[in-house]
UniProtKB/TrEMBL annotation:
<dbReference type="InterPro" id="IPR050555">
    <property type="entry name" value="Bact_Solute-Bind_Prot2"/>
</dbReference>
<keyword id="KW-0732">Signal</keyword>
<dbReference type="InterPro" id="IPR028082">
    <property type="entry name" value="Peripla_BP_I"/>
</dbReference>
<dbReference type="Pfam" id="PF13407">
    <property type="entry name" value="Peripla_BP_4"/>
</dbReference>
<keyword id="KW-0479">Metal-binding</keyword>
<protein>
    <recommendedName>
        <fullName>D-galactose/methyl-galactoside binding periplasmic protein MglB</fullName>
    </recommendedName>
</protein>
<dbReference type="InterPro" id="IPR044085">
    <property type="entry name" value="MglB-like_PBP1"/>
</dbReference>
<feature type="signal peptide">
    <location>
        <begin position="1"/>
        <end position="19"/>
    </location>
</feature>
<keyword id="KW-0106">Calcium</keyword>
<comment type="subunit">
    <text>The ABC transporter complex is composed of one ATP-binding protein (MglA), two transmembrane proteins (MglC) and a solute-binding protein (MglB).</text>
</comment>
<keyword id="KW-0762">Sugar transport</keyword>
<keyword id="KW-0813">Transport</keyword>
<keyword id="KW-0574">Periplasm</keyword>
<feature type="domain" description="Periplasmic binding protein">
    <location>
        <begin position="44"/>
        <end position="315"/>
    </location>
</feature>
<dbReference type="InterPro" id="IPR025997">
    <property type="entry name" value="SBP_2_dom"/>
</dbReference>
Length: 352
């Protein structure tokens, strides 16, 4: 009997200890029953070909603004070096990003970036520098955000043609031709090639004869723009009648050189046109110095890039809950706008 009571007490003790050590059932998470919830934001890896590029600094700012409270960004300055950018992409993938947003150093490197993204099953949004469509089309999770490059050249040509016709005194030698110099962006860059081609074609289509005095690359840079303009003024002097620049940074460099030679004081004037409508250029237009520019909408390029990257990072269609549309080349095209003093507030609003 004693043995039986001892065994009974032992069993009761074991049962008691087991009951005391049983875990409390976890409370059901909020939201859909049985679903796990997480407060973690998607992580998006971003590379910019050069942080110190005037225009791209505004695109980067737009991406950062949109990302605030919505995603974690890993931002990289590729310092205009494709090998550096490739390494940055590898590192971002190893850190577990959910999507990539790439402003290529070299558009020809798109295939390599796509290969890396595809191997990791990651969506990739290229922006501002357009990859070859064959490369973009090789991967179902690759898209592009940018512009129609030819549009900016056409608009710049229209702006220049209208002003030339309205100011016959600009034809200094009275030969009926525009003697122009042209500051070209990076050779091979789709925007540089298109702007250079279409601005001149548009002038000709408007019935204006042209004569090229100089065409050299200023690599999108204001210092290089100034150096080239210095050299051209020393060589051609007042024979130059018009300055065309593929972007505002180079245009501003040219203006700095022209100022040093006495232009923009009294009756000595030189028409200068650019592209981008960055704030510094808008100030020159308001002062009556720079003739005009073409708005390259940094704010909306950055916004569209982030919107597509965020949706793709979440596994959604990239256009979900946006107003963007894709063309036949898997690209969101942000339109250009010609800017003069008459509509300068359009450009100012785009940079707010």
């Amino acid at each position: 009997m004693k043995k039986f009571l001892a065994m009974l007490m032992g069993l009761m003790l074991v049962f008691s200890l087991t009951a005391c050590n049983s875990p409390e059932p976890a409370p059901a998470p909020e939201g859909e029953e049985g679903a796990e919830t997480s407060d973690e934001m998607p992580m998006i890896g971003v590379t910019i070909y050069r942080f110190d590029d005037n225009f791209m600094s505004f695109v980067r700012r737009a991406i950062e603004t949109k990302a605030s409270g919505n995603a974690e960004l890993i931002l990289n300055d590729s310092q205009n070096n494709q090998a550096t950018q490739n390494e940055q992409v590898d590192l971002m993938i190893s850190r577990g990003v959910n999507a990539l947003a790439i402003n290529l150093v070299d558009p020809q490197a798109a295939a390599s970036i796509i290969s890396k993204a595809q191997a990791a099953n990651l969506p990739v949004i290229f922006f501002n520098k357009e990859p070859n469509f064959a490369d973009l089309n090789s991967y179902d999770q690759a898209w592009y955000v940018g512009t129609t490059s030819s549009e900016s050249g056409i608009m710049q040509g229209q702006l220049a043609a209208d002003a030339w016709k309205a100011n016959p005194e600009w034809d200094k030698n009275g030969d009926g031709k525009i003697q122009y110099v042209l500051l070209k962006g990076e050779p091979g860059h789709p925007d540089a090639e298109a702007r250079t081609q279409y601005v001149i074609e548009e002038l000709i289509s408007q019935g204006i004869e042209v004569e090229e005095l100089e065409l050299q690359t200023g690599m999108w840079d204001s210092i290089k723009g100034k150096e080239l303009m210095d050299a051209w003024l020393a060589k051609h002097g007042d024979n130059i009648e018009f300055v065309i620049a593929n972007n505002d940074a180079m245009a501003l460099g040219a203006i700095q050189s022209l100022r040093a030679e006495g232009y923009f004081t009294g009756d000595k004037y030189m028409p200068v046109v650019g592209v981008d409508a960055i704030p510094d250029a808008l100030e020159q237009i308001k002062e009556g110095i720079m003739l005009g520019t073409v708005l390259n909408d940094a704010k909306n390029q950055g916004a569209a890039t982030f919107d597509l990257a965020l949706n793709a990072a979440k596994g959604l269609d990239p256009l979900t809950d946006t107003d963007w549309t894709l063309d036949e080349n898997k690209a969101v095209r942000v339109p250009y706008v010609p800017i003069t003093l008459d509509n300068i507030e359009v450009a100012e609003e785009a940079y707010n």
